[in-house]
Design brief:
globular; eight-stranded antiparallel beta sheet; 3 helices; 5% helix; mainly beta; Beta-galactosidase, Chain A, domain 5; single chain
Length: 302
């Protein structure tokens, strides 16, 4: 790899692209096409993403932090629409959040500029994926990194049969204190509370955290923005081709059961996930392509 800002490094068992640019630093794992660090200059090179201090870089194991890709289903398979469940023969062995986040991706394209770096990684169907999910596809993870982080996931149906997917860009974000962290711009939205028998509710005011939170929000528009307010900064999360988002924090008890997660880590993180879940799941016909994307930007007013 002969590039001015990008170089290949090894993190225990996992290869990664390390990017050192005048405007930012970043680390992108080839396994799962998972961005685990994005440190823009205007954030004093602090990581905009949360990464578990106990993250383990092992082949075939998802990493706790950054932006994991949940694909071709989100969460547990049995919580997905029938159109997605019926595609999988061996449902009992289907891992949560699909398989894309734990597979090796290929470097497809790198473009460097004095203002930005663009990296595209790809994952295509093969004998391994067809044992898990019987369709032909190509995924592209496109990262454009500069003062902001732009990430698009493109799904192409390269086979002759239609398929359905749910998906999420499972973004982990840091905070100094979860009890003093708030998400704005979701007021009046409908959400499903996964911790209360999957009841449908309506958001009143800003989203705050005082216990375990696992909610699936739904929006009228295919483009929407959420703003995360923490004790030290304000972050804009701009979403496209998504009408659903997942907001998650495990709190005390669930933290004790999570891998690569210390019992007190919940105090310093939360997830805001750009998604296509439940009623927002997508059917992709043969030859078709869809894209979902998120942009993270430090909010200038703070």
């Amino acid at each position: 790899m002969n590039h001015a800002f990008c170089k290949l490094i090894q993190m225990d068992e996992l290869p990664a692209i390390k990017i050192e640019h005048p405007r930012f630093n970043a680390i992108l794992l080839l396994q799962g096409a998972q961005l685990i660090e994005f440190r823009p200059q205007q954030n004093q090179f602090e990581n905009v993403l949360w990464l578990s201090p106990s993250a383990q870089y092992k082949l075939g194991s998802p990493i706790r932090g950054g932006i994991p890709i949940c694909w071709p289903w989100f969460g547990n398979l049995d919580k997905n629409p029938d159109s997605i469940q019926d595609q999988v023969d061996n449902k009992t062995s289907a891992s949560a959040h699909g398989f894309a986040r734990s597979m090796p991706w290929q470097i497809k394209h790198i473009q460097e500029d004095c203002h930005f770096v663009e990296v595209t990684l790809s994952l295509s169907s093969d004998s391994t994926t067809k044992e898990l999910w019987p369709f032909e596809f190509e995924l592209e993870a496109k990262f454009v990194l500069s003062n902001t982080l732009k990430f698009a996931l493109v799904t192409s149906n390269t086979g002759s049969l239609p398929f359905s997917i749910s998906q999420a860009l499972h973004t982990y974000l840091p905070t100094q204190d979860i009890k003093h962290s708030f998400i704005h711009s979701a007021q009046n939205s409908t959400y499903i509370d996964a911790l209360d028998s999957w009841k449908e509710k309506q958001q009143v005011g800003k989203v705050s955290f005082s216990g375990e939170t696992d909610r699936l929000y739904f929006f009228e528009d295919k483009e929407y923005s959420l703003r995360l307010e923490t004790p030290t900064q304000s972050l804009l999360i701009n979403n496209k081709n998504s009408q659903s988002a997942v907001i998650w924090n495990p709190w005390v008890e669930k933290s004790k059961r999570l891998s690569q997660f210390s019992p007190l880590d919940f105090q310093k993180m939360l997830c805001i996930e750009t998604a296509n879940v439940l009623s927002d799941a997508k059917k992709i016909n043969a030859g078709e392509q869809i894209e979902i994307s998120v942009e993270l930007a430090i909010h200038s007013s703070q």
